[in-house]
Write a structure and sequence with these properties.
It is a single chain. This protein is an alpha+beta fold and about 400 residues long. It has 2 domains: about 210 residues, Acid Proteases (Cathepsin D, subunit A, domain 1, Beta Barrel), CATH 2.40.70.10; about 180 residues, Cathepsin D, subunit A, domain 1 (Beta Barrel), CATH 2.40.70. Helix content is about 15%, strand content about 35%. It contains 7 helices and 26 strands. The strands form 4 sheets. Strands 2-3-9-4-8-7 form a 6-stranded mixed β-barrel. It is globular, with a radius of gyration of 23 Å. The N terminus and C terminus are likely disordered. The structure holds 2-acetamido-2-deoxy-beta-D-glucopyranose. The site of 2-acetamido-2-deoxy-beta-D-glucopyranose has 13 residues, from α2. 2-acetamido-2-deoxy-beta-D-glucopyranose binds next to α2.
Length: about 400
Amino acid sequence: MAAGWPPAISLLLLLALLLPVTASSMVLPLFGNVYPVGHFYVAVGIGEPVKPYFLHIDTGSNLTWVECHADGGSCNKCNTVPHPLYRATQNKRVPCADARCASLHQDVGKPKNCGAAPQTCNYEIQFLEGSSSRGMLVHDKFSILPKSNAHAADIAFGCGYEQVEASGRNEKVQVDGVLGLGRGSIDLVSQLKQLKVIAKNTIGHCLSYKGGGFLIIGKDMSTFPLKKWAPMAPGQPRYYSPGRATLHLDARSIGGADPVEVILDSGSTYTYLPNALHKQLVPVLQATLRKSLQVVKDPSLPGELCWKRPEKFRSVDDLKKEFKPVMSFNFGNEVTMAIPPENYLVVTKQGNACFGIFAHNAKYIILGDITMQGLLVIYDNDRKQLGWVRADCNKPPKSISAITSRI
Ligand SMILES: *[C@@H]1O[C@H](CO)[C@@H](O)[C@H](O)[C@H]1NC(C)=O
C-alpha cells in the first residue's frame, strides 16, 4: 500500500533535498598517474558560467593558480594547457590593500609591493624543480566537478600570465594550473574552512598504482584509526615534514645512522635523495638483483637507472617478481614507511623497469607520488600532524571508515 509520509516529514525531506547542506568535507576524484602523465590532478569549475580546469595537486606549494589571460591582454608566456585559458576580468582582481594580498605574499615568501598598480596584487613564485610563475591574485566562483557534489565558493587564486619552465621552453602540459595544498594561510583549504564549507584544515590523498585515486579535504581526522601520527617537524615551517628518518634496504641501513629530513610533496612525481645517500643506495640495491637483469638506457627517463630482462616488464606484478627488497624510512618513535618495489620503480613504454628514486643536490629527502601510491596520506593542519596507512585508492570512499575496513 502506498501510504503517504506524514506531512511534517515530507516537508523536511523536501527541504533536505532543496537546501544546500553545509558540507563538512569533500571527496574529489583524482586523475593522472606517475607514468606516463607525471602527476595527479583534480577537475574543478571556475567562473559563471562554470568552465572546467585541471589542477595538479601539490602539497609542496601554497598558491592555487591557473594559467591565464590577464585582463586587457593575452598571456605573456603560457604553456599549451588542456582547456581554453582562464580570462581574468578587471572586476575579479584582488586589490593590493586586501588582506588576502598580504596573506598571499606571506605564503609565497616575498614582500608585498603595490608599486604603481594598487588595484593589482602581483606575485612571483619559484618552484622546487626550477620553474617559476608570475601573476596576479584574482577571485572567482570555484566549484568541484563533477557538479553532483559542487560547492561553489568565492575563492582567491592566482592568474598566472607568465610561466618560465626549467627547460626554458613553454611546453604542452596536461594541467591548467596547480591546486596549492601547502601550509599557507590563503591556500584553497584554509579559504574553504574560513567560509565554513569544510570543517577542518585537513587533506588526505590516496594515489592509486593504476592511476587516479581520491583527495579528501576538510574531514575531521582526529578519530582516524592510525597506529602512529608523526608531528609536523617544527624546524620545517615551509613544507610538510614528518621529521628526520634513516633509510633501510631490507634490514640493511643505508647512509649510516644520521637521519635526514623528509618532506612529503604530492607535487613531485618521483622521490629524491641527497646525492651521497643515493650513491650508497644504488650498489646495495644492484647487488640484490638477479644477473638476468641488465642495466639499460631508456628514452622515457633519460639519464636514470633502468633495467631490462629477457621478457619485457608489463605491470607492477612483474616488478614484484624481479625486485624483492623493501626499502623503508624509520622516523623513530615507531613511525615507519615501507617502500615496496612498486613504490620505487616504474614500468616504461619500452618495457623496462626504471628506478624512480633520483638524486638531487639538496640535503633533504622529497617523498613524491611514486612512493606515496597505495597509501592514504593525511595532512592534519589543525593538529599539526601527518600520518599514512595502506589503503585501496581505487574507489572514492563513501565514508572514511569504509577506507579502513577495506584495508
Ligand atoms: C606556505 O605558507 C606558510 C604560511 O604563510 C609559510 O610559512 C611557508 O613557508 C609557505 N611555504 C612555501 C612552500 O612557500
